[in-house]
Amino acid sequence: MSFYLREAWNAYPCSPNSATHMVAISGRKAEIFHLGFIAWLNVEVRRLSTGIPGLDALLRGGIPEGFFVALVGMPGTGKTITCLHFVWAGLRAGESAIYVTTEESRESIVRQAAQFKMDFQSALESGRLVIIDALMREKEDEWTLRELAVEEMLSRIIEAKKKLGRNARRLVIDSMSAFWLRAPVKAREDSYTVKRILNKWGFTIMATSQYAITTGSAFGWGLEHIADGIIHFKRRMINSVLTRYIIIEKMRQTAHDLRAWEIKIEDGVGVVVVKPLERRLEDESLPEKVQKKIKTHSEEFSLE
């Protein structure tokens, strides 16, 4: 019996005389396939819609429930709007949701959602949405962080979950980068703490992480290491026009699309997935003049 089949048999034991397994004999080998294990392999993963049809298609239907997904990239690439879509998809489905904002005020998040015809204000008033504000508001309320600390944020999230109940399945933290601006070395430790504690509360999480404009790299390496999924938001100038695009770099339990896809942010709609980028990803790292020189030298070398 092969290693994998033996592991399957041990995980799903049954009597050798049971009708729930079959024996395949080939030469001197006999391998037992437990039908329960085969059925387990074919079970569909329960997924939550991102609220963006084109992105759902790239993810084979959405984000697997219970996942911690990192949205990473430079400012202005569409991360926050994607988070708005995710929360709005849940609210439209009758769920409740929690949104933590560390770089915009609660009012700003509500106004931005309204720009894309997402009525967060009504959800707040009906008690189905909690927006935890970390911007040190002049007048504190129940959902305001007194200090920008991971521990206090977790405490508020858990309080909100208890208030909203089991129907609160979606959580956004936008962004995690704010918590380690003074100490990037804590990024990985804080990210692990957040995932470990919130995993017990039945959330599917979108958390954003800012990359530096100058280098295009993270301030600290945290979310990427602990995330179940990573969606990288990028931008570049093409023919003097700002072009935004995404790459799904990782999504467990998902045969996701591996190409770079152009996205647009349309007023009244939000994020729209347009088409795959035609140029190679590696082209973006070098100026066009340098690429031409490399190509010329390569051709000359091949002729020698």
Characterization of the model:
This protein has 304 residues and is α/β, with parallel strands linked by helices. It has two domains: 39 residues, no CATH class; 239 residues, 3-Layer(aba) Sandwich (Rossmann fold), CATH 3.40.50.300. Helices cover 33% and strands 27% of the residues. It is built from ten helices and 13 strands. It has a nine-stranded mixed beta sheet with strand order 7-6-8-9-5-10-11-12-13, sandwiched between helices. It is globular, with a radius of gyration of 24 Å. The N terminus is likely disordered.
Q: Examine the secondary-structure arrangement and name the CATH architecture of the largest domain.
A: 3-Layer(aba) Sandwich
What radius of gyration results from the CA coordinates? 24 Å
According to CATH, the homologous superfamily of the largest domain is P-loop containing nucleotide triphosphate hydrolases
Order of helices and strands: HEEHEHEEHEHHEHEHEHEEEEH
Instruction: Briefly note the CATH topology name of the largest domain.
Output: Rossmann fold
Q: What CATH first level of the largest domain would be assigned?
A: Alpha Beta
Determine the number of helices (DSSP H or I, runs of at least 4 residues). 10
The structure class reads alpha/beta
C-alpha geometry: globular
Biggest β-sheet description: 9 strands, mixed
Strand order of the largest sheet: 7-6-8-9-5-10-11-12-13
Strand content: 25-35%
| Strand tally | 13
> How many discrete domains?
2
- Straight-line N-to-C gap: 56 Å
Low-confidence stretches: 1-42
Approximate helicity band: 25-40%
